Amino acid sequence: MGAASYSILSRQAGLMNETRVIANNISNAATTGFRQEGLVFSEFIRDTRGDGSLSMARGQVRNTSQQQGVLSQTNGDFDLAIEGDGFFLLETPGGERLTRAGTFVPNAQGDLVNPDGYRLMDANGAPIFVPPDIDGITVGADGTVSGGGRLLGQIGLYQPVDVIGLIREGGVMFRAEGGVEPTEGATILQGFLEGSNVDAIDQMTRMIEIQRAYELGQSFLETEDQRIRNAVDTLLR
């Protein structure tokens, strides 16, 4: 197999990976708090000892879009949306996780939790407790939670120390490899939810482009395979 074939094969593998990423984006176009992903390609060039160089592409690093999603009003007391940069912090069995999905509800103990039962953390990394006998819960733009005429806590907003090290877990949750830190400048909206930031039309267009590029690469490989077969047949004769 020639250097050109190896280059095309590596490109085909990268295109397949990007197809999976885009398909996942499209399937989550209506998922609350979902962040669109893209694939970052890198190039590896190697000297082939007298025959020039071999260039191979690799597409494995995923880049998460931080673009703001559309905000929809729900009027739910514990439906929260972030306007600006930042994430809610959740306590999970695997450690702290970040999310933009703001659907919460008090559990049996009174702690605010997401649909998976993971507790929402405050500005100091502690759970947000809402007494069951308090009505009229309000959440301020700065995350302060009040009810019954008294302050109950303040929801924390965080950001990853290393954005590149943000690893997706569970669809709308992320693990920050480099840790998290408080963020400033963002506000919390009570009674709203942030939708997915997936641009479905753009993703469908990119999917078509990938399919065409993959078909072109496949055609080249088939032509190259036939050329080699013909050359071998000629030598055997």
- Number-wise, the strands total 18
Span between termini:
21 Å
Poorly predicted tracts of residues: none
Total DSSP helices: 2
Helix percent reads: 25-40%
Tell me the count of domains. Answer: 3
Write the H/E string, N to C: HEEEEEEEEEEEEEEEEEEH
What does the radius of gyration come to? Answer: 25 Å
Rounded mean pLDDT score: 86
Biggest β-sheet strands, sense, barrel: 5 strands, antiparallel
Characterize the overall form.
Answer: elongated
Strand order, largest beta sheet: 9-5-6-15-14
Structural class: alpha+beta
- How big a fraction of the residues is strand? 25-35%
How would you concisely characterize the structure shown here?
The chain is α+β, with helices and mostly antiparallel strands and 237 residues long.
